[in-house]
Amino acid sequence: MTGEAAERILMLRYYRDDEKSFDELCRRVAGAIADSPEEEAEYFDMMNTLRFLPNSPTLMNAGTDMNQLAACFTLYVGDSITEIFDAMKWGAMIHKSGGGTGYNFSNIRPEGAFVESSEGVASGPVSFMKAFDAVTGVIRQGGRRRGANMGILNVDHPDILKFINSKTREGDIANFNISVMVTDRFMGLVEAGRFDRVWITREETAEEITVGDIWNGITEGIWRNGEPGLLFYDEINRKNMTPALGNINATNPCGEQPLLPFESCVLGSINLSKFIDEKGETDLASLEKTIRTAVKFLDRIIDKNRYPIPEIEEATKRTRKVGLGLMGVHDALIMRRIPYDSPEGRKYCGSIMQFVAETAVSESGRLAEEKGPFPAWKGSVWEKNGKMVRNAALTTIAPTGSISIIAECSSGIEPVFSYSYTRMNTAGESFRMVHPLFKKELETVAGKLFPNPEERERRVGEVLSHVHETGTVQDIGWLPDSFTKIFTTALDIRWRDHILMQAAFQEHVHASISKTINMPGTSTKNEISEALLFAWRCRLKGITIYRTSSRKDAVLCLGKFG
Ligand code: UDP
Question: pLDDT digit string (tens) for 155-169?
Fold first, then answer.
């Protein structure tokens, strides 16, 4: 039932010693999480039919001695050597267990600042980030999954330029994604074109850093190789449901989960394409059932999980955040014959995500009646709104990098990258993937246009090679508009439409969204600047931009690079 690429990845990284099939894996996971035989059957069924999959650590570790089931963590980093190295040690423990960690390094004093105890000078957050990176590199050799990190620095930290430039050379600090935490005040100055305005004055040297210095560094870095990302502090905190516990200043590695220090979160994604019938209708009754079962499943995990350290257990159980999201979204749009980059596409996606969020909140309310609301509910925004829930946040959009391969669907809410491409897995093996819906529809269209079987076959073959080489079918003259409009790719879609789709989802997502905003290789720094400002105005919580071909090590490659 699972395809070749899926089987390979399952065998390499997911099956335990005694397992040989996906059935057995699903049985182990369902058995480890369920409280009753009925629940076990429900959990088994939703995973085995590929309608829902939890994040990789759950698939890998549930029911084993490790039993660490969460993908997302953030840790507190203080300004003392003890605090910094504590965070490093905890990070290593998280990575060993298959999780990814986010750190905001802004508490660390800037490079060159005085250190009282040694009467020396401080080395600054970036040098410590390199040490964290090295530790991750060592740990990753042991595990089944690469330990990923997010390094964050606030836009008003004196070392911000050094941070922005820390990954200028490809391969530097490779185990980190980096993001600048920007504020509305800073973005307002950029929007108003106040680039000469002094933003930071460095204490030791009196060096002045302007808004323009920082903005140029950001856009230049993104143009060069896609980093740093931006995180929008004020929007993240406007939507923080537990402000009494403090402000949020960090996310997990791919940015979809803003978390308080020491919180962790288990993610799970529903494969939307499984709920679309042949007529293109969405089976809402069945979707509702899966959402409810998935929320129960994710909530159970919080109690069954083995946490790396007690602080994480305590922080996680205080808010009981879970991250339910969608994958296979572009596939679902294709099945409904709605273009991804259209108002209709965004409307459909917004309404489905609203349905997911409302149903998840309703199920969390049911769980709260049974077991009580999350412990920090009093004083939370949920309480203020008169809504009792068991989980402070319920919805997220994860990248689903691995689980979408297992489920054989388009990843997260991303548009299909190419309908034929070479994918490299973490073991360095490459697979040629041809999108099944694309191939089927292509054959149908060619069948109507070319009655001669030889010509039909030749035309289909030509399109498949063309799309494998170039990633697009938009320039093939004989394909009808009705086909090319539906089979757009991440690179065909304009950045504005990427951002609008992210915004359509964000409105109904409690946490955040992992998404890449693709821009053509010819894009300028000015266009990148425009896209960042547009994302901020659309009230996204964060943004990642990737300019085509700006990195050599991209995971997804078109034919000519793969
Ligand atoms: N993650 C990680 N290492 C990886 C991939 C992912 O630590 O190699 C973490 C990271 O926090 C990321 C989250 O898992 O944001 C979810 O990633 P994804 O949805 O791609 O994971 P999957 O469950 O598909 O493996």
Answer: 999 999 999 999 998
